[in-house]
Amino acid sequence: MSLSVETLAVTIGDKRLLNEVSVAFASGHVTAILGPNGAGKSTLMACLAGLMQPTGGRVLLDDRPRGDFERRDLARRVGYLPQEADVHWNVDVATLVGLGRFPHRGRWGETPEDRDAVTRAMAATDVGGFAKRGVSTLSGGERARVLLARVLAGEPDWLLADEPLANLDPAHQLDGLDALRRVAAAGAGVIVVLHDLNHAARVADDVLLLRDGRVVAFGPPDQVLTRDLVAATYGVDTHVGVAPGGRRFLIPTERLA
Ligand code: ADP
Ligand code: MG
Asked: What is this protein's function (predicted)?
């Protein structure tokens, strides 16, 4: 399983949202995409998800252009949780998570595998306690967990999640990171947009830094989450330390001129 972009470009009017972006994502890895607001992170995710047509370059899935695949096949292979995901009708939580299985549904309806996948996804995101509640009665963070559960339930080969942890409390952020790690450990590729450098340090095998639609760096966290590259990407100075257990942590200390 492979997913890559080659010299990807997106131009709208005279604005270049992405420029010469070439990355080969690894299955079995969590790739964290980081960069300032407006860097092009969501644009890249939308191209990977097939919701936006690049104006240059291409997206390759198993070395074939994305457009060669049949829609239902793509839906099974690639799961996407958009940044502004929301639910516009009031279904109950279990039903909504079950919709994540839709690409797998055969003519005989729900199978035991479908039910198991939904149960696992709900456990991973700790939403079982409100399985029967209407989604519109949940808090923003609870709803974000349910939406993550829906995409997990689909068990895609490639899981794309755009800032899935943004509304979550610290405990559920850790749950979310663990869930993404488990997905990768099971062999899938996970591509996740994060804003928290420490979340990236914790979860990522590879980090992609974007700025102004271009790749600043791509590689393992120890090589990419450095004071210099973080400064080049975000324009902030950071204190980089090593936490007990050996994982690095980063504290932004000041904005650079
Ligand atoms: P990120 O997710 O990294 O914050 P986005 O990929 O959403 O950034 O957007 C990248 C840049 O493209 C931003 O400056 C945004 O304002 C701009 N942009 C997004 N969509 C459009 C559009 N339809 N027309 C013009 N500019 C856009
Ligand atoms: Mg975004």
From this structure: Part of the ABC transporter complex HmuTUV involved in hemin import. Responsible for energy coupling to the transport system.
What are the structural domains, with CATH classification, of the chain?
2-85+156-255 (3.40.50.300)
Distance, CA of 29 to CA of 256 (rounded, Å): 32
pLDDT in tens, 146-175: 999 999 999 999 999 999 999 899 999 999
Model's pTM, two decimal places?
0.95
How close is the Cα of 252 to the center of ligand 1, in Å?
Answer: 24
Residue 84 Cβ contacting ligand 1 at under 6 Å? no
What is the Cα–Cα distance from 187 to 26, expressed in whole angstroms? 10
Residue 134: DSSP 8-state: B
Residue 233, ligand 1, Cβ within 6 A: no
Q: What is the DSSP letter of 28?
A: T
Q: Is 14 in the pocket of ligand 1 (CB under 6 A)?
A: no
Half-sphere exposure of 215 (CA within 13 A, CB side): 18
Ligand number nearest CA of 166 is 2
